[in-house]
Amino acid sequence: MTTITALIFVLFGAMLLAGGKQGFVSFLGLIFNFGLVFMSVVLISFGIPYLLVTLISAVIILVITIYFGNQQGRNADIAFLTSLIVVGLVILLIIPVEHWAQVQGFGVENTEDLEGLSLQLGVRFLDVSCAMTILSCLGAVAEAAVALATGLVELEDHDKTITDTKLRKEGTKVGKEIVGTAFNTLFFGFYGELIGLFIWFARLHYDFGMVLNDKIFVSEFIMTLISSIGIVLTIPITIYIVIFQKHRRKKVNN
Amino acid sequence: MTRINPKFHIKWLTILLTLLIGIGAMVFTHFDAPFYHQTVAQVQKVHNYGRTKVTDEFHNQDFQENQTVTLKILNGKDRGKIMKSKNQFSGAGATDMQYHAGQQVFVHLGNKKSNKSSILINGFKRDTVVVFLVWLTISLLLLILKFRGSMALLSLVINALLFFAAVEIDVGTNFNPFILFSILAVIFTFVTAALIFGWSKETLVAIASTICGTAAAILIAYLVMSATHQRGMNFEMMDYVTQQRLPLFFAGSMIGSLGAIMDLSADITSSLFAVYREEPELTFWQLFKNARKIGRSIMGPLINVLFLIFVAGTFPMMVLFMRNGNNWGYSYSMIMTLGIVQSLISGIGIALTVPITGLIAGGLCETKVIK
């Protein structure tokens, strides 16, 4: 048995232990998500327009992440709508930023890995970078949206007469807690992924300016910051949607 | 109706000030060449020589183009000098790029002995875009959350300093890197939890379960890898390696999953204590069940966060491999396995944290340690 197969079994067992049936559904969602991400990279390498591939798989990944292994209800719908809006906004930021930063492809630190490989492939690596950045922020946005929507819907159910001001205030309070932990999830993930690169920088005595302009560092840093921006944007948008729906319900009832 | 709402007034002032700071910072990076040790130059104009079609041995069709780039040196003793450099780029742009007038680059100047003064572009200046994104993130955070967002920022800054200190110790001494980064992980947990959740008994429970969850994940990963003899894992494909691979891989997996595990254990702990305060007569098993109920709905999305980051990060290498005549299976096993194992380890840690937090928090409530 390979290590991956064994670890997948362990993860399956751990998720069952933690969540029972819901853990099983979450596990299935993870497998589906992997299939989607893998198909996306295969299709992009075939030369199919990256934006088309990424947009379609992004929507499906959001559906799976939000609706699988979660109590389905109004909070999930709000979270899904919020995620769609936030990811749309973030894509509008990602494309110009990636063109501006020129972090596509590989850096000087990758030189050894590239030996003997053809680099003139007919696929624009700038497109690959955009696809990578868009897909990598989906998880963070969905997680924040689910947590915030669940908190706000609970609040609303608890107190049917809650005012807009109170919702806004409480939403910001819940948002603060989510941002605090979610930022650390992202940045620890960033350090964990790039620990080797940072040791490389230190060993070769890169100065601050060299790190700040390094292709790989900037590429990964952009991914982390874009996800952070996505999380922050989730707060006002979720609050706005909850308030908007509340007013619409009132109108219908009257 | 002539009275101005002061709240509204301040808000506009804040937005104006934030914008001014952002523009100021970005203008600064445009003129910061004197602060660099490396030579910085600005592209004055470019001349392109037209595209030539190229086809490689795998029938990939691309183009190649040469350009002459006129550069004006912005710092050092050759400041103000105008020089010409040649650049070649391809459509794929995997390691090369097309330059445009106005961009700033790092250059390497040839030695003075040879009469022909040579100049080579060896990097693109990216500080403006980094500063822009950092500014955007901080501004949005502070505009939306006001001062309440500042603790999150403070914890990020302190953690970054701690991390770089640990990297320096790793490089400067012979200390075992795995032990070093384990100590760092414990410090990370304490500092972050104290800053974000405040200091309380609940925070201590969250810290204890975070450390136990992370340790359990790493231990299980180690046992599984030993039992399966690391079959199918291509450690030779690890990127940017300058020291022993296995301890580095475990250190990376540990630090990488720590944030998500902390997120989950804090969520469960605070909800569980809230429930317990409302109904103090709940038994251990009821509390444990409650922990699972809270945990299982957050667990899935949380595992996805890291999974998507780790797997999407392999995209450029995957495209490169598949376009170089390798089939899906081989590309997957060479490029994606390490990222997947890293996300599996963090997934196991996240899932196990649910019962672990339930045990610790439920046990403490049951023994009435916490009133």
UniProtKB/TrEMBL annotation, chain A:
Source organism of the structure: Fructilactobacillus lindneri DSM 20690 = JCM 11027
Sequence intervals crossing the membrane: 36-66, 78-97, 131-153, 178-201, 221-244
Q: Does the keyword Repressor apply?
A: no
Q: Which UniProt keywords apply?
A: Membrane, Transmembrane, Transmembrane helix
State if S-adenosyl-L-methionine is listed as a keyword: no
Return the protein name. Answer: YibE/F family protein
